Amino acid sequence: MKRFWITMNMIYEKFMLLLFVVAFLIVIYGLYDTWYVYKNASNDDVARFKPTPGQGLSEEAPITEDMVAWITIDDTNIDYPIMQGEDNTTYLNLNPYGDYSLSGSIFLDTRNSENFTDPYSILYGHHMEYGSMFGALDDFMDLEFMKNHKHGTLLVGRDGEKSYELAVFACIKVNVYDNDVLDPDIASNIEQIIKDEAISYNTSIKNSDHILALSTCIEPVSTNRLLVFCYIYE
After folding, report:
1. Does the pTM of the predicted model rise above 0.90?
2. What b/e readout covers 95-118, taking b as 16+ CB neighbours within 10 angstroms?
3. Secondary structure, 3-state, 68-114
4. Which of 6, 115, 182, 223 sits a CA distance of 20 to 30 A from 161?
């Protein structure tokens, strides 16, 4: 009987050791997964391939041919290539290199022209932690922040052949089923909608014929979206 209990104790100790090892591996995997998602959402890696106006991407840049532009909002983490896939799901989970990534890419609505000449263009991006991707849009709900971070640049074309100035002027929260705001084909009344529903609105910025919306999801409801609006200046 004594030998039996000794054997049972040994089995118990090994079982507990196995549980500890499994729990430890789960924690390690969780930390790695968090680091991996953050790394892929960070602009540090892809930013080294950012073109300068009138100059193409470097030959070693692995960004796919779906890149149509590059957006920068000064003094924020928004400094990314803009992709445009076959549909609006293509780059939800693909990075600019065409590899699978939970953070996806910043991408242009497929209904929009890649040269940004439409009256109303929409960009989409995941809401990531630490202000990565379009997680930085939250800050624009504060009017003072908007006034101090209103400048940006849009380099259009894979080679950055055209450079436009951006000016952030408003942001609103909408439901994903609000087609009046999330449909780029409906542009005739977009400015009136913004004026009526904006959370923050900077009236000091002069109007333009072209509006760019930056859209991301926002809690607590999964169908909620936060849109930040910029004027595009020729």
Report:
1. no
2. bbbbeebebbbbbbbeebebebeb
3. EEEEEECCCCCEEEEECCCCCCCCCCECCCCCECCCCCEEECCCCCC
4. 182
Buried b or exposed e, range 172-199, using 16+ CB within 10 angstroms: bebeeebeebbebeeeeebbeebeebbb
CB neighbourhood size of 22 (10 A): 10
Residue 162 CA to residue 155 CA, distance in Å, equals: 6
Count of CA atoms in the C-beta half-sphere (13 A) of 160: 18
Residue 30: enclosing H or E segment and its boundaries? helix 2-41
Which residues touch 166 (CB under 8 Å, ≥6 apart)?
Answer: 71, 73, 151, 152, 153, 154, 212, 230, 231, 232, 233
Q: What residues have CB less than 8 Å from 124, skipping those under 6 apart?
A: 88, 106, 107, 109, 134, 215, 216
What is d(CA 128, CA 50) in angstroms, rounded to the nearest whole number? Answer: 21
219's tokens: 């809690």
Per residue in 54-103, pLDDT (tens digit) is 777 777 789 999 999 999 999 999 999 999 999 999 999 999 999 999 88
Task: Measure the CA–CA gap between 34 and 227, rounded to whole angstroms.
Answer: 26
H-state helical runs in 113-201: 143-148, 179-182, 190-197
From residue 59, give the alpha-carbon distance in Å to each of 30, 49, 91, 123, 187.
Answer: 36, 10, 23, 26, 38
Amino acid code (one letter) for 26: I
Write down the pLDDT at residue 31: 34
